[in-house]
Target: NUDIX domain-containing protein
Amino acid sequence: MADGFADLPTAREIWTRYGQMQLDRAYMPKVPEQLQWGFWAGVGPGTEALGPIRGRRVLDIGSGPGHHAVHLARDHGALVDAIELSPTQHQRAVEHFTNEPSVRFVNADVVDHLRTAEPYDAAYAIWTFACIDPHHVLPALRDSLRDGSLLVFSALHTNLHGQGPTPTVTPRPEAILVNGEQPIASKAWALTPQLWQDLLSHYGFRVEQCDVLHAPEADNLVAVTFIRARRRGSSARRTVCRPRTAEPLAPHAAVGVGAIVYGEKGLLLGRHKLGTFELPGGSLEGGESLEETAVRELAEECGLIADPQDVTLLGTLVDHVAGVPRVTVGALINRWEGEPHDQPGESVGDWQWWPLDNLPQQDLFECSGQILAAWRPDVPIDAPSAHYSPFRRD
Model:
C-alpha cells in the first residue's frame, strides 16, 4: 500500500478486536440521558443538536454497543438504524438490547448499507468520523439523506499527545486504548475544522455549526471537532456548482483561465483532490498571454498539447468572493494533440469526457460552471451569477 499503513489490519479487523476485548471484560456502557459528542460530560451540545426526531428515521453511523441509538429511541421516539462495521461490537448491542422495537441493529459497512437503504431524516456519528475516509462516506450520505436533513458528528481534533489536525485529507497513525490492554494500532483522520467545512460544502452540505470541544482539565490535550451540517436541496435535472473558497488570494491568483476542450467524445472534466469536477485551467503567470496560460495549464494538468493560435478567448467573467474581485477568462481549445492523462504533482486528475446533456449533477467547480454557462447558455447549469463580457470578434 502507498499510504504507509500496509502492516495495519483493516478497520473491520481493528474494531472486531476492540469489541472482543469489551466482550471479554463484560463491559457495557449505560444508556445515556444525553448524547455526549466529546469524551467529557457537560462539554458541548447534547441530543438537541439533532433537532426534532420523534417518529423520524435516524441513521447511527458506527453505533458500537448501541447505547446511543437506544437513548434516541427510548427518550426521543426516533426510529434508529444502528449501523456497525465490527461483528463483535454488533454482538454487544444485540445481546444487550434484544427487545428495542424502534432500533434496528445492522452489521455492515455504512456505505454498503446506504446503497439500498431508504432515505433518512437525520444522521449522526460520535467519534466514528475519525476512523472513516471522508471521501468514502460523505458522498454516500449526501445521496441517502433527505433534502434539508441534518448530519451531526464529532471527530478527532487532537490526540493524547496534543498532535493537532492535518490540513489535508490524509490519515495518520493512532492508537485505540482499552483499560488494562495493549493499545490497538490504527489510523485516523484528524482534519482541521476548515477542511471539514470545505469537504462538507463540496459534498452537498451547508455547515451550521463547527466547534472544537476541549477537555475541562487543563492538562488534558485531547480535543474533538463537533459539526452540525444540513443536506442542501438536490436537483434531478440541473448541474449544481460548488462554491470557491473565501480565503484571501495572492494578487497574481485573482486572474484565471478555464479551458474548454470539447469534441466528439464530449467535454473534458477532471476531478480535484477535494472532489470537484473542473475544466483544465489555472492562474495567469507573469509575462503570459491568456492563450499561453490556457495552453500551459492544458499540458501541465492533463498532458494535452495545443498551440496558442488554436485558442479562442470567449470573454471575461467578473464576480466578488469575500470582497476580492475575481476575473476568469473562458478559452475554447479548437485543436489539440494527445489523450488526457493524470500528471504528477497536479491536484486535478481522473480526466474523463462528459456529454453536455449528462454533466455531473453535483460538485461542478463554480468557475468552471460559470465559463460553461457563458459558452453554452442552453446547457442547464446552476452557476452563481457573474458579469460576463464577451470578447469582440472582428
Notes: The radius of gyration is 24 Å. The chain has two domains: 11-231, 239-390. The longest helix spans residues 11-25. Confidence is low (pLDDT under 50) at residues 249-253.
